Amino acid sequence: MVCTRSQARIPLAEIAVEHAHKRTKTISTSQTSTQSHDEEGGSEGGFDEGRENFPPSEQIIEICTPKTPRTGVYHTEWISSPFWRQSLSNDRVNRWEMSADEVVLKIFSYLKFEDLFRCALVCRHWRELSYDRILWTEFNLTQRAIPFDKLLTILGYGTRYLSLSCGDVKERSAPSPRKRKENLMLEYADFGLCNIQPTQLSRVLDCAPNLVKLNLESLTLSGPVLRAVAQCSQLQVLNLAMCQNVNASQLVAVTRNCSKLRELNLAWCNISEKTFSRLFPVCCNTMEKLNISGGRETVSCESIATLSRNLPNLTALDISDCVRINRSALTSLAKNCPHLVEFSCSRVYELSTVDVLNWIRQMEYLKYFNSFPSLSIINDRFIDFKEKMMSRYPYVRLNTKDRSDIARPCTSLHVPKGVSRLWERELRS
Prior knowledge:
two-stranded parallel ribbon; 16 helices; disordered N terminus; about 425 residues; alpha/beta; 15 strands; eleven-stranded parallel beta sheet
């Protein structure tokens, strides 16, 4: 007697949810009905309520039996012994307790988070299993709303991957008192375009010192937020594109304290030219990808020369919309950053076709060059530039990306429905 994996997932999960609904109804009844049930000899765990509607034991055991690696089916020969047959024939046996915790956790992994909360009300054992860290490793709230105190509670279960992109974090009318600081296990966090207050964001980041990748795109920041980010010594990827109220001194502290930073996106942050010169005052060998696009009047050739000297291992750079850049900046990049693989310079009006082609000839490792034809290379026809590129440097791909993906959690606009991409991970909704 066998059943396939696809047949085993949904039915037993539905059984668990149905049983949780029945159990919660039993808990909400009056104390009188509970006492009468005890007088009739009801079991202590409450599993005898609705016993006649509970699925047969053969169905539960058949679905819960472990999978054999070769055949890929669920066998039930292990219950053919007289001992198991005698146990299954007894109506008083708690059939869920006969299943291993690993099996129940696998069943719970297919449930919605709302159903997990209902299952936690059944008994103490199910409560421990419902709040197991395995079930709360990833939490996807893309385009969803959640109260702030509930968010802190869920993160305390051991969530490592969180997506709050385009979400809404609401504050209670009577905010709960600030609890004792507890370090969270959060590693990947996406708060891009999220409606969250800077005080709430600083509280979350202050308790997450183990962050590895963080997205704060289009948020209004404050000094405490960047101060909390600067304490994340393991941070490798940081996206601050289009952020407002970026504190210059705190941003400098982030680049100095986060020694493992590999990708940084500062597009359209309105950072002054003086701040750019202070971002990387010393040589940083870990930085590989940098986006400083949108610095129309703040990014100059001197800034590019300083950055190129202190970031010798850059492989991707985006200087789009930096209108003060000219040929001298390309010369500094060719001298100090010879390992560039991807370069973007859209709408940089001071660069001509001859300057770009001569610079590409010096870049041995360059493979991707992005400069869109709308306003990119002034006084030159883009079609002629494209033909020269293809004839002279066929190994360089032109305009393969319509936007920069540096430090962004989702690099593609085509994501399957019901799935949110969090860098290299995919979170189910």
